[in-house]
Amino acid sequence: MKNWKSDAALLALLACPVAFAAEPGPYLGAGIGYADVLTDDEKDDLRDVLRAQGFNGNVDDDTENFNFRVFGGYQLTPNYGFELAYMTLGDLDLLATVTAPVNGTVKAESDIDGFEFVATGAYPLFKDLDLTARIGGIYYNADGDVTVTGPVGAAGSYSVEDDGVAFTGGVGFARQFGTNWTWRGGWQYVDTELVENLFQTSIAWRFGN
Could you list the pLDDT tens digit for every one of the 209 residues in the chain? Predict the structure, then answer.
């Protein structure tokens, strides 16, 4: 005779997927990605500044969109935790070549990084695969140098800095490999004037058995 209780238990198990990150505890990781630096907006701003001073010319860029992150976190429950990360947000390099009414150049270079603190969430989709979310804040810093050559305003070198706290949040996927390794990938929004969208992939190691 067929054991209907065993079949019912099996169906219930299949209908209720279990999150792979069920074990609470700490983890560490690192990742790389693409930072969507708002190059076009910054180029337009530099053109507007030059035109306001009566100068015309071309603005080119050599922007670095590489993004790097190191992070650590703690899984509080099977579905919720928190995370702290240091991350670079790309480099913005602009060069304005002024051709009228005089010749000269304006070079602007800026490095963007920050510290992020977020709450994390996970929802199981399939075995070993979670839909993930993150929401919190980031303290960002943009250190820049501006070098002016020729008779374009005041020739010389200047340092500029911009920092602040901004909202951040995103969604992605996570998959476990083996007992302790986890791959993550996804999209993240950062509410700053220089960078808005991040696309990242990372590997994390969870401590414990």
Answer: 444 343 444 333 334 444 454 468 999 999 999 998 888 888 888 888 778 877 787 888 888 889 999 999 999 998 999 999 999 988 888 888 887 777 788 888 888 899 999 999 999 998 889 999 999 999 999 888 888 887 666 677 778 788 899 999 999 999 988 888 999 999 999 998 888 899 999 999 998 76
Q: Which helix (H) or strand (E) holds 121?
A: strand 104-126
Interatomic CA distance for residues 26 and 113, integer angstroms: 24
**CATH code, residues 26-206:** 2.40.160.20
Domain boundaries, the chain: 26-206
Q: What is the pTM of this model?
A: 0.78
